[in-house]
Amino acid sequence: PSREPLLYYRGCVTRRQIQIILLAEDGSTSDNEGHPIVQYVWGKVWVNNHAHILLPKNRNHKVFLYFLLKGIEAKKIESGSIQKKISQANLSNHNILYPSEAVITTFSRIVSPLWKEWMQSHETIDTLIKQRDELLPLLINGQVSVMPREVNCDLSHD
Q: What's the pTM?
């Protein structure tokens, strides 16, 4: 077992576009399957003091690190009996079998294009949700219409 050196930040505010991995620090630290709560976030972000910000030293390995963290058993890195907590020390002391650079590079070469498509899909979905939320009230109030003027869809007359 070896440890991949990680860069560690907390309380990050940025006005530029970034991609980072977040790991829940306290409270709800694990999902129903017993894995830690891990998020891959991008864009302009604000991270509060209830999350660890993790980045691999080799930035091309972010997606690999995300999946690696998702595979850990949370109970092995949690402490606390009433409120669970994942400390930086617990995370740093957890031994992870880390594959060779060649394996990670191959993984990244295969998965990165798929991951970029996934991210673009989420951005498209977010844009469509925003448009829906802006247009639906106007449609319901009759301020806009999707029907051509030639089509009479007025249901108020029998």
A: 0.74
- Is the model's pLDDT at 140 over the cut of 60? yes
User: Is 65 exposed, middle or buried (CB count within 10 Å of its CB: 0-12, 13-18, 19+)?
Assistant: buried
Check: CB of residue 38 under 8 Å from CB of residue 22. Answer: yes
On the question of pLDDT at 2 being above 60, the answer is no
The DSSP symbol for 79 reads E
Tens digit of each residue's pLDDT (9 = 90 or more) over 79-106: 887 888 888 888 888 888 888 989 999 9
Distance, in Å, from the CA atom of 101 to the CA atom of 95, rounded to the nearest integer, reads 17
Mapped onto helix, strand or coil, the DSSP state of residue 135 is helix
Residue 149 has φ and ψ, to the nearest 5°, of -60, -30
Distance CA 93, CA 142 (A): 61
Q: What angle do CA 57, 63, 64 make, to 5 degrees?
A: 75
The mean pLDDT of the chain is 83
Residue 30, SS3?
A: strand
Query: Residue 105 to residues 46, 75, 109, 112: CA-CA distances in angstroms?
Result: 30, 29, 6, 10
